[in-house]
Every structure is written in C-alpha cells, then in structure tokens.
Amino acid sequence: VHFFRSYEISEFHFLEQTKDGFVGDYLPSSIENLYNKLHQNIRGNPDKKMNLTLLINSLNYPLNQNEKTFVVFPSTAYYTPISYIPQVIGIWIGKITSSSPLIILYLARIANLLAWLILAYLAIKITPIGKWVFFLLGLLPMIVFQSSSVSADPITNGLSFLIIAIFLYYTTQNREPIKWKKII
C-alpha cells in the first residue's frame, strides 16, 4: 500500500480520493493486478514463500499507464507526500525507462534505502557524541528492513536521527546563540 501511495504522488496526486466510500486513487491496473498475482498465495499465510519463478516472470509484466482502475489504500492515503520523495524519484526513473511495475517497485525501494543511508551518514557526521550509537542503531535489523522498503518510515527515522544529531551538536559544541536562520 505504500507503493500505491508513492505511485499516486509520482503522478502529482497529493490528496486522497473517495469512491463508493473507499479511500484510494486511480492507478494503472497493472500495478494492482501484479500485486494480487504475487500475493494471492502468500497473503495471510506466513508459512508460504514467494515463488521465485513467478517473481522472475513478473519482471516482464507491462506497466500500461493508460489503463487505470481505482485502487483502495486507506491506511497510507493520508501520509504526507514529503515522506515519499525518494520513492517517487525511483518511480520516475522507472517510468522513464518504461519498466515493469515490479522493476519500478524495486527502484523505489533502492531510492528509499539510499535516502536513509544519506540521512544516517549525515547524522553520524554531525553528532559530536555517540557516533557509534547512531551507527549501531542504524544497523538494527528492523531499521535495515524498513529502509529497504517503500514505507514512509525510513525518511521519518532518518530525519529523526538527523534532528537528534543537530540538537546534540548545538547543545555540546556551539556556544553562541542560535539565530532564526539556523533554527529554520
């Protein structure tokens, strides 16, 4: 559903739409079809695994941007577009290359991971104390997993790391008053 929201924002639709009481937006039907195709056997079954052959064959599944259908994603429709900027960049790259929805999904995930790495690097670089704490927190399995997803969480986490690092810098290193320009 985060991919649905990311794709929606990539088409400059920032506000959710409602159809028959459901919240979502009009997206290429190939995206929802691919989602249903890949998740039909594993949804709700934690013991089931992804079929590698099906996944490889899905790399050639066409995007078909002209054929749209209303896709329901109420849990992410209200998320701020700012959290999806890296994913949207990955989606744009995928659209330019006329990739399949699956390749576009992976490009969005890679872009999200790169954004997280940049934010974590900046936090480690800026903080005057606890650099290893930031480093180790950034390597926690759940953080690494989330950072390589299409979720909005990596940007939220990365910005949180960065703001904590900035606060630590200004409370321990900077002895002069902070001016409005730096606060902004």
Describe the structure.
- This protein is mostly helical and 184 residues long.
- The protein contains 9 helices and 3 strands; from the N terminus they run H-E-E-H-H-E-H-H-H-H-H-H.
- Strands 1-2-3 form a 3-stranded antiparallel beta sheet.
- The two termini are 33 Å apart.
- The model has no long low-confidence stretch (mean pLDDT 88).
According to DSSP, the number of beta strands is 3
Mean of the pLDDT scores? 88
Strand order of the largest sheet: 1-2-3
Low-confidence stretches: none
Cα-to-Cα separation, first versus last residue: 33 Å
Main sheet properties: 3 strands, antiparallel
Strand content: 5-15%
Shape label: elongated
Topology:
Layout (H helix, E strand, L loop, with lengths): L1 H9 L6 E3 L2 E7 H11 L12 H6 L10 E5 L12 H12 L4 H26 L4 H8 L2 H7 L5 H20 L7 H4 L1
Antiparallel strand pairs: 1-2, 2-3
Helix pairs in contact: 1-4, 4-5, 5-6, 5-8
Question: What structural keywords apply?
Answer:
single chain; mainly alpha; 56% helix; 8% strand; elongated
What does this entry show, briefly?
The protein is mainly α. It is built from 9 helices and 3 strands, in the order αββααβαααααα.
